[in-house]
Specification:
The complex is a heterotrimer of chains A (321), B (145) and C (662). Chain A has 3 domains: 128 residues, no CATH class; 40 residues, no CATH class; 144 residues, no CATH class. Chain A has 12 helices and 8 strands. In chain A, β5 and β6 form a beta hairpin. With 321 residues, chain A is of the alpha/beta class. In chain A, 32% of the residues lie in helices and 13% in strands. By secondary structure, chain B is an alpha/beta fold. Chain B has a single domain, classed as Rossmann fold (3-Layer(aba) Sandwich). Chain B is 38% helix and 16% strand. Chain B contains 4 helices and 4 strands. The longest helix of chain B has 18 residues. In chain C, β3, α3 and β4 form a beta-alpha-beta unit. Chain C is built from 18 helices and 34 strands. Chain C folds into 5 domains: 123 residues, Rossmann fold (3-Layer(aba) Sandwich); 177 residues, FAD/NAD(P)-binding domain; 58 residues, no CATH class; 164 residues, FAD/NAD(P)-binding domain (3-Layer(bba) Sandwich), CATH 3.50.50.60; 67 residues, Alpha-Beta Plaits, CATH 3.30.70. In chain C, strands 10-7-6-18-29 form a 5-stranded parallel beta sheet. A 5-stranded parallel beta sheet of chain C has the order 20-27-21-22-23. Chain C has a 4-stranded parallel beta sheet with strand order 2-1-3-4, with helices on both faces. Chain C is an alpha/beta fold and 662 residues long.
């Protein structure tokens, strides 16, 4: 972590960058915040640890409008999102100085709470990223790092950075689950079970829009659900259209663009596994139109703005999907 | 309402102006009947059909939505239906995934010359929807339990 | 809020018999925005249009809904009527209560209810309509004619005579088409070549006409008034400029075993060949598959004997790219394959031939030099049987469901010519019906029967059995006498069904012109726009649209030419105003829309945007209205809804959905 701070100070000092986009200590040890650092002094608050899960690529949309370059720290999976935004002309490569940081999997405090651990005061991570010491009002508990990881890290896309100016730190292979296993489990259900599952999950939604706000693909200047373009604006509760269809449409809008960064599920205060929508689309795209990784590069045409003459027919897609 | 009134489904058919709408016209001028439950909305091309229109229809009480366009290779705009095909494949697969009965949505390619196919397709689709019954789930995906 | 007038048409009894129009009027009167509603017998009539104009003026209407027949029928009529009355023509919406309602439903209550719903949807839409103004696009004053038969030649001549440049693209080495293969033509019995070749020469000599033979259309892009077409000029292996057409190469060519396409395989041709003596251009091509030089590398005799040095073995295909304002399709026909008609022994006996083959047999330049003889043994036939409707009017998948239209007349012609030249030959015709509408046609047929003693039998032939002695046993039925017939024949001639030339499918796809289930090109309106394809700027000439004889083909060729001339005579075209329109405040500049646009109509501009006080440089989409054709692909790709389609906006379609589902 200190190396990252030192390098950031250097780049600020020699004028390469005008500011630094990273993470700083939060009110609890397990919730660092995304922050801009404009000076060497501010950088003393910089942190980078297992809880720095936030994908900073979306912040580069606004940072691209600022004077001078912004130093941004991107984990391997974040670079897919950055590339996708680059493809969509939402970020300016010239305005970004990317340090690709190593990642040994990011942690999910909800996973720790789910183990029945209550009254958490702070969490310490050992240097090898093997064990967490959870300090609670009932005493210290020990948790294996792996068991507290975010879902997305168990099915990590890879340790390679797709775009960067320089690399710092090592990454660790964290994959220990099948990426599409959960999607397949749902696909195997009866229609009634599927419906019950999604109805139960979606009924928890409080429309806080956290998923939309954090999603790097959901980066419209103005969301269609906030405009009157489809008679779908949800200012007052006069029309339930949005309530019911929001998540399906959101998933459709990011289909072929979603990098499966998993931020939606991470930030959902209700714990809705929103990534299951996106991952279903990714699975279908791979199956019907060939393997596609959004954000692998900034050039390839996305699967929904492309076609072949003998694509699967929609009715067959349902049978085979 | 009489006790045993038969279920009258609400069905929205999006038809592209150049092929399928003309096919529906031909079905009409050939007097090829299909149930009055089908109401056609004219769009320039099947690629004009936004998944939001389909979900909106279901949310407003439609029991089935069918999209008709030119046969692959015959699109008036040369490529429109190819995009529609991908979009609808994705959408339909998603609807199936969340437990919506397979069959409430359909895509059919109907040319301007296929009045018979238009009529047959609509007859089939209506009986499919009749067998599925009223659409409850799509109107109710996010209802509070 | 709009002030909407609703006009419900009875269409005589077409609508009024099944839809209670009065009830529709009463119900829609209460719809939001509606300030006027009335019904009338024929809305499209002058009196009907006057009612609309009157209501627009008196009630100060801002939009109208006409509940009538399909918008494909009269949308343009009512838009013009509205425009004359001072309303923007795009403030008109049609509720199709005829084709989509009264004609397909029998129950009045049901049909009326549906008509009300369709009217509501149109009213909901028109509530959100905005006046639109058509843009303009330029017209390239040059026409392309695909196909160099009589249809293509006539169309090209007519367009060229009006003063416009025309290019003819013909896939074979010569123009002339099927007509050049015919011997005589009905009902006047002129020699086909005598009336066709002068036209071929005229086309070749015309300063406004460029002929690309041995060439095919490879790619078409653009739209009415501004098509861009790639033409592949296949390698002829002969230099068109140097060749003098002396014909020595064909004489000396040692490879002479290739069946002649022109003679329908009844004779052979050399590897270097012109299809026929009067070919235009009179420049041979080398059939590279038959040529010994191309197959083995040895030979080169044609090159040695050519005084002009025109032979060029290295010649390559060439792509010519040209711009056109109008395209006329004149791809013609071929006869169907007879593999599914084993009962007529076409593949077993050389003496069973198609009518088109008989044309070559009868022709002085044909394989028998015009002598009527059996192709198996060269003997003079005594009995000839003609079988009608082979593959035409067929209810199973062996043939075609339609009438090929020309067979009855050419069979009468063949029968008459044979009886005239060889009075000793007995001619029998088996027919289902004899169809001879047309000027002097029935008289012609009756002459065959009455003056020339042709034996017409109403009935079908079940089997043609080749006998060991070489004769053919014809088993048929005489329906009028209700008896079986067994007849010996020396020759059997099959009136084989015609079908559109197979090349038309590919061409239709390139032009995005629709074709019907029989591969005939579809006309824009069966009665009122018979020579126009539904694809703007594409016109139809000859049999590619449906079976026709020569006089009809020439007439239609002229009609197609007039339509093309009418287009080329315009300096500007009004473009469809229902084009895509971006909302710059909502645009992300993500390029998704440009990625799916088939016309390259979307570009991006970085400009200063004032978004509710936030002023910043943004990359935003721009639509070129002259290029946009209004498909709407971009609108669905756009996640923020920034891109919308005028005339079919998101809100308009959602309003229709809501009206239908409420």
């Amino acid at each position: 972590m200190q190396e990252l701070i030192n390098r950031a100070k250097e780049l600020l000092a020699d004028g390469t960058v005008a500011r630094v986009l990273g993470w700083r200590e939060g009110d609890m040890s397990y919730n660092p915040e995304v922050a801009y650092f404009n000076s060497a002094e501010e950088l003393d608050k910089f942190v980078y640890n297992g809880f720095c899960a936030a994908n900073l690529s979306k912040y580069m949309i606004e940072a691209s409008k600022l004077e001078g370059k912004t130093l941004v720290f991107l984990k391997p999976c974040d670079t897919y999102s950055f590339n996708q935004l680059l493809k969509e002309h939402r970020v300016d490569r010239e305005k970004a100085y990317i340090i690709g940081v190593g990642c040994c999997g990011k942690l999910n405090v909800e996973a720790i709470k789910a183990m029945g651990i209550k009254g958490i005061q702070s969490i310490e991570i050992d240097d090898a990223c093997e064990t967490l010491t959870v300090k609670t009002i009932y005493g210290d508990k020990t948790v294996a790092y792996k068991d507290a990881m975010l879902e997305r890290c168990h099915v990590c896309k890879g340790k390679e950075h797709m775009v960067y100016d320089e690399l710092m730190g090592e990454s660790r292979d964290t994959v220990d689950a099948e990426r599409f296993a959960e999607v397949e489990r749902i696909e195997a259900m009866s229609p009634a079970e599927k419906f019950a599952f999604f109805q139960a999950e979606l009924s928890k939604c409080i429309r806080c829009n956290a998923c939309r706000n954090v999603c790097p693909a959901c980066s419209c200047r103005k969301c269609v659900f906030d405009s009157n373009k489809f008679d779908s604006a949800q200012k007052a509760n006069v029309d339930s259209f949005e309530e019911k269809m929001f998540h399906i449409i959101r998933a459709f809008h990011v289909a072929g663009r979603c990098t499966d960064c998993g931020e939606c599920s991470r930030v959902c205060p209700q714990g809705i596994p929103l990534h299951l929508f996106n991952r279903k689309f990714i699975k279908d795209i791979n199956k019907f139109y060939g393997e596609f990784k959004a954000g692998e590069d900034a050039e390839t045409k996305g699967p929904l703005t492309n076609f072949t003459f003998d694509d699967v027919e929609p009715c067959d897609a349902v049978e085979r999907g | 309402m009489p006790m045993n009134e038969e279920f009258k489904p609400k069905i929205v058919a999006f038809c592209c102006n150049w092929c399928s709408y003309a096919g529906a016209d031909l079905a009409g001028s050939s007097r090829l009947a299909y149930p009055a439950d089908v109401k056609i909305i004219r769009v320039p091309c099947s690629c004009r059909v936004n998944p939001m229109f389909i979900l909106r229809a279901f949310e407003k009480g439609a029991d089935g939505v069918i999209i008709c366009g030119c046969h692959p290779g015959d699109c008036h705009y040369s490529t429109g239906h190819y995009y529609a095909r991908r979009r609808m494949a994705m959408l339909f697969s998603m609807l199936e995934y969340i437990g919506i009965e397979n069959g409430r949505t359909r895509v059919e390619w109907v040319s301007a010359a296929e009045g018979v196919k238009f009529s047959t397709t609509m007859n089939e689709f209506v009986s499919k929807i009749q067998s599925l019954g009223k659409n409850v789930r799509l109107g109710d995906i996010r209802c509070k339990n | 809020m709009q002030r909407i007038g609703v006009f419900v048409c009875h269409c005589g009894s077409n609508i009024a018999a099944t839809v209670d129009v009065k009830k529709v009027v009463e119900i829609v009167r209460n719809e939001p925005g509606v300030v006027h509603a009335e019904d009338y017998q024929y809305m499209c009539s002058e009196a009907g249009q006057a009612l609309i104009a009157k209501a627009i003026a008196e009630k100060n209407l801002s939009g109208i809904v006409v509940c009538s027949c399909s918008p494909r029928m009269h949308e343009a009529t009512f838009r013009k009527a509205a425009e004359r009355a001072g309303l923007n023509p795009y403030m008109v919406e049609i509720a199709n209560i005829r084709e989509h309602c009264s004609w397909i439903h029998k129950n009045v209550e049901e049909a009326t209810e549906k008509a009300v719903i369709l009217a509501r949807a149109a009213i909901a839409k028109v509530n959100l309509n905005a006046p639109l103004k058509a843009g303009e696009s330029r017209v390239t004053k040059r026409a392309l004619v695909i196909g160099g038969g009589i249809a293509g030649i006539q169309t090209a001549l007519d367009i060229a005579d009006a003063g416009y440049e025309v290019d003819i693209v013909e896939k074979t080495p010569s123009i002339g088409g099927r007509m050049s293969q015919l011997d005589k033509t009905f009902p006047t019995l002129d020699c086909s070549a005598c009336i066709l070749t002068p036209k071929m020469v005229e086309a070749a000599a015309h300063e406004k006409i460029t002929i690309y033979t041995y060439s095919e259309v490879e790619k078409v892009s653009g739209f009415v008034g501004d098509f861009t077409v790639d033409i592949r000029k296949k390698a002829r292996s002969v230099d068109m400029d140097k060749c003098t057409g002396c014909g020595v190469c064909q004489e000396k060519c040692p490879s002479k075993k290739t069946p002649s396409e022109f003679n329908r395989g009844l004779g052979n041709r050399s590897a270097i060949y012109t299809p026929f003596a009067q070919a235009i251009p009179n420049v041979p091509v080398i059939d590279r598959e038959a040529c010994i030089k191309f197959k083995t590398g040895k030979c080169g005799i044609c090159s040695k004997v050519c005084q002009a040095g025109a032979i060029d073995y290295e010649q390559k295909d060439e792509i010519v790219t040209e711009k056109y304002g109008a395209i006329v399709v004149a791809t013609g026909f071929d006869t169907i394959k007879l593999d599914k008609y084993d009962e007529y022994a076409y593949n077993q006996s050389k003496d069973v031939i198609t009518s088109l083959e008989l044309e070559r047999v009868m022709n002085a330049a044909g394989p028998t030099k015009g002598h009527l003889e059996r192709l198996s043994d060269g003997k003079h036939p005594k009995n000839i049987v003609f079988i009608q409707c082979v593959g035409s009017r067929c209810s199973d998948d062996r043939g075609k469901p339609y009438c090929s239209k020309i067979c009855c007349m050419y069979t009468a012609k063949h029968a008459m010519l044979i009886r005239d030249k060889y009075p000793d030959v007995n001619v029998t015709v088996f027919y289902i019906d004899v169809r001879t509408p047309g000027k002097n046609f029935d008289e012609f047929y009756r002459r065959a029967v009455e003056d020339y003693g042709v034996n017409y039998i109403k009935g079908q032939v079940g089997k043609v059995a080749p006998q060991p002695d070489g004769s053919l046993l014809v088993q048929g039925v005489d329906l009028l006498d209700n008896k079986q017939i067994l007849m010996e024949a020396d020759m059997v001639v099959l009136a084989t069904a015609i079908e559109p030339d197979p090349s038309v499918r590919k061409i239709a796809t390139m032009l995005t012109a629709s074709i019907d289930t029989n591969n005939f090109l579809t006309e824009s309106h069966a009665k009122l726009r018979p020579v126009e394809s539904p694809t703007a700027g594409v016109f139809l000439s000859g049999v590619c649209q449906g079976p026709k004889d020569i006089p009809e083909t020439v007439a239609q060729a002229g009609a197609a030419a007039v339509k093309a001339i009418g287009l080329l005579a315009k300096d500007k075209l009004l473009t469809n105003p229902c084009t895509a329109k971006p909302d710059e405040l909502l645009c992300n500049g993500c390029s998704a829309c440009a990625n799916v646009c088939p016309y390259g109509a979307i570009t991006y501009e970085t400009k200063l945007i004032n978004d509710h006080g936030i002023r910043e440089e943004r990359r935003v989409a721009q639509v070129n209205n002259a290029l946009c054709q209004g498909c709407g692909a971009c609108t669905v790709t756009c996640p923020s809804g920034a891109m919308d389609l005028q005339g079919f906006s998101n809100r308009q379609i959602i309003a229709e959905v809501d009206a239908i589902c409420r």
